[in-house]
Design goal:
By secondary structure, the protein is an alpha+beta fold. The protein contains 7 helices and 8 strands. A 5-stranded antiparallel β-sheet has the order 4-3-2-1-5. Strands 6-8-7 form a 3-stranded antiparallel β-sheet, covered by helices on one side.
């Protein structure tokens, strides 16, 4: 009888505990789903907008998602009677201890925030992190950033290495200047070579007229006069024009009657001294 009475007395507590567990499971499932839904929704909205830099989207998505999840976890714990105020204080102390132990990780987070605020790199831009790698920016994350090299290989750098090194951004400006060097053989008509190259670049539709292309003699080598051309193009056209002009320039000089510079060596035969 005493056992039965004890069981009957504990039934309300068991019912309450069962309801709390059920509520906790439902809250976690719904909260996790809701956090993912809101995070993905923010990502889609940001991708459609022309006023939002896509570089900040992954970090904003992660921040919103985990903020919602933290509130969900606190709500679940409060359901079981846990004092959230003391819990937050404990989490703060634990966070301080973890922060001291993981100072490099926090440095990456701080660097990532600075990258997003000052935006020296953006998604889709081709950059060079001096001494670390060159590639197109795929994503600037909370801890690290992803890049893709021109050969299709992806590489990842911690944000602190990006922020702590010189950054060369090849895509930020709308225009870029190229410099192409062409060899002219000694004895050929140098003025003719300058005229041909000037006409070639000024007549190209993707070479900017302002500033105008500059053609000049830049060096005298052992068997070649080096003629350099500096021309400006739009950044999106830079490599197409650069590769084309490297191919066409020498062909135009040949059509104008100029010869390819060939290294020459003068061999002098010394007479054998008389015995």
């Amino acid at each position: 009888m005493e056992t039965k009475a004890a069981i009957m007395a504990s039934l309300p507590w068991l019912e309450t505990m069962a309801l709390n567990v059920l509520f906790a499971i439902i809250t976690l499932v719904v909260g996790w789903w809701f956090s993912n839904f809101i995070g993905n929704w923010i990502r889609k909205i940001a991708q459609r907008s022309t006023h939002i830099d896509f570089t900040i989207v992954p970090m904003a998505q992660a921040l919103v998602t985990w903020t919602i999840r933290v509130f969900v976890i606190v709500a679940v714990l409060a359901r079981f009677g846990v004092q959230t105020a003391s819990l937050i204080a404990a989490l703060g102390a634990a966070g301080l201890a973890i922060g001291l132990a993981l100072h490099n990780t926090l440095q990456n987070i701080a660097s990532g925030i600075m990258l997003l605020i000052l935006r020296p790199i953006r998604s889709g831009e081709f950059v060079s992190i001096v001494g670390k790698g060159d590639g197109t920016v795929l994503e600037v994350g909370l801890f690290m950033s992803e890049f893709q090299q021109t050969d299709g290989v992806k590489f990842v750098l911690p944000n602190s290495l990006i922020w702590g090194n010189p950054i060369i951004n090849y895509s930020r400006n709308e225009t870029r200047r190229m410099e192409i060097a062409v060899g002219v053989r000694y004895g050929d008509d140098l003025d003719k070579a300058l005229e041909v190259l000037s006409d070639l670049f000024t007549s190209h539709e993707k070479v900017l007229k302002d500033p105008a292309p500059l053609v000049f003699v830049s060096a005298y080598k052992e068997s070649t006069v080096v003629v350099s051309v500096r021309a400006w193009t739009k950044t999106v056209d830079f490599w197409d024009v650069h590769f084309e002009m490297n191919r066409v320039a020498i062909q135009k000089l040949q059509e104008a009657g100029l010869s390819n510079p060939i290294p020459l060596r003068e061999v002098v035969a010394l007479e054998k001294p008389a015995a």
